[in-house]
Amino acid sequence: MPMHNPGFALPFLRIAFNIQTPFSMKKSLLVLAVALLGLTSCKDQCHQTNVSRNLISKQISTADLRNNGVAIAGAKSLEKPGKIYVKGSYLFINEIKKGIHIIDNSDPNNPKNLSFLSILGNADMAVKGNMLYADSYTDFLVFDLSDPTQPKLLKRIENAFTSGMVEGVSWFSNANGMNPAMAPTQITDYDVELITSVIETDCEGNMNPWSNPWLVFDSFFNASSSFSASLSSSSSPNQGSGTGGSMARFAIVNNTLYAVTNQNMQLFDISQPQNPQKGNVVTLGWGIETIFPYQDRLYVGSTTGVHILSNADPNNPVRVATLSHVRACDPVVVHENHPTLRFGSKRSVVARLVTSLI
């Protein structure tokens, strides 16, 4: 009488074969091999298109920055807008590393583009009264806005900054850290070239990291867009200053302008608005991105958290607390007891702090 085994249980197939004759065994094994081959080769393959960045270095001499870095031009269209600042009925919109658009917003339904202030290497600005303060790579500039169509450069503080970061790309000067008295002569910056690539994924959005390892590296360090239109009022008595957005690196509180770089906070005394003086430097640690003033505190966003500083003494801010999180781009605004942090471009969290800390 023929003997049968119970067969093999597979996810989509149950096979029973007869071992009565060598021929039937070979036939059954052939069927099994084909079935197993089909199961092991059944894998979805998808392709995903991504855009990564290629950085191309360029050199700018400080002589060229100062001789040719500022110009007044007529109104021009926004091409690559960066940060936004509001002062009264005026909007100041940064054109990344190129300058500032000055817009009359008296009629919000019909804003008028008044002029474009060309500033090489500009990323941030703040306004107090009729004075516009702006960066130009290493330098800190002051403009008279009495006539917004014709801003006038009043003062330049050279070598106020040694490095900076715009849209996740760092620039730096050749300042000699061992000899601070040696003035920098050259600035290294990078143009960004966007590269489109197609990678393999598992059809669930998870890519094969070896198909494009540089894309993984770039995705980790790439900051989100710097355009910041989420304006929030500060409750500090700023005596005629305006309001910056959540991505601001400049902040004015009374007679002090605070400017954060990648690792420091540079103070400027603006008690004489047209003639600011460079003040103290506060070391904060690496990865500093934004600053937001609220009451007698300064909230400094970094890639790993928020530093909270007391500016009870405006010339000597003191760190009183730090709120840490995983690495991410971290704009911050504050209302009452709630600092609002944004992690990257999609997630946000509202943290309630102990009253004594804020």
Compose a concise summary of this entry.
Helix content is 10%, strand content 46%. It is mostly beta strands.
Structure characterization notes:
This protein is mainly beta and 358 residues long. The chain has three domains: 8-40; 43-224, no CATH class; 228-358, 7 Propeller (Methylamine Dehydrogenase, Chain H), CATH 2.130.10. The chain contains three helices and 27 strands. The protein has helices at residues 22-40, 62-68, 213-221; strands spanning 8-9, 14-15, 46-61, 70-74, 81-87, 90-95, 99-104, 112-119, 125-128, 131-136, 139-144, 152-157, 163-166, 169-173, 186-201, 243-244, 250-253, 256-260, 264-269, 277-283, 288-294, 297-302, 305-310, 318-324, 332-335, 338-343, 347-350. The strands form seven sheets. Strands 4-8-7-6-5-16 form a six-stranded antiparallel beta sheet. Strands 3-15-14-13 form a four-stranded antiparallel beta sheet. A four-stranded antiparallel beta sheet has the order 9-10-11-12, with no helix packed on it. Strand 22 (297-302) and strand 23 (305-310) form a beta hairpin. The radius of gyration is 29 Å and the shape is globular. The N and C termini lie far apart (89 Å). The relative contact order is 0.11. Mean pLDDT is 78; it is low at 2-20, 214-238 and 341-358.
